[in-house]
Amino acid sequence: MTGSQHSAEDLLQTALEKTYPKWPRLDDPEAYVRRVICNEHTSWWRRAARRPEKLVAVPPEPAAAAGDTGLRPALAEALGALPARQRAVVVLRYLDDWTEREVADLLGCSASTVGSQLSRAMAKLRVSYPALASNEEPQTKGVRA
Questions:
Q1: Which end of the chain is more exposed for a tag (fewer CB within 10 A), N or C?
Q2: Cα(17)–Cα(27) distance, rounded to whole angstroms?
């Protein structure tokens, strides 16, 4: 969701700090923490315009993963270009492998909203990043093994 491992770690830490006092009373702590993460991430990007950027003389070089084909950085860049809500839907639906109903419950919207946000996000990704579209898995819907 955040587009940065360090920001994701900070987000998780903040969510756990907010959840800790309520932990003994929670029926499903994992779901509660996920909801806090989504809400906190929304608060962060709403406040982003008020946070000053920290400039560095030389930007850090990202570490290359073993066997990295260049698709991972392209995917990270493509996801970063999406609006926050569309990025959240794509990450939860495809990277975390949640159903549309689960994503809708977590984000507090209807399943049809999740579907439309997902459709718009995928259309943007296909247009803006054709390299990602060419690396998609072939559709197997309706094909019997």
A1: C
A2: 18
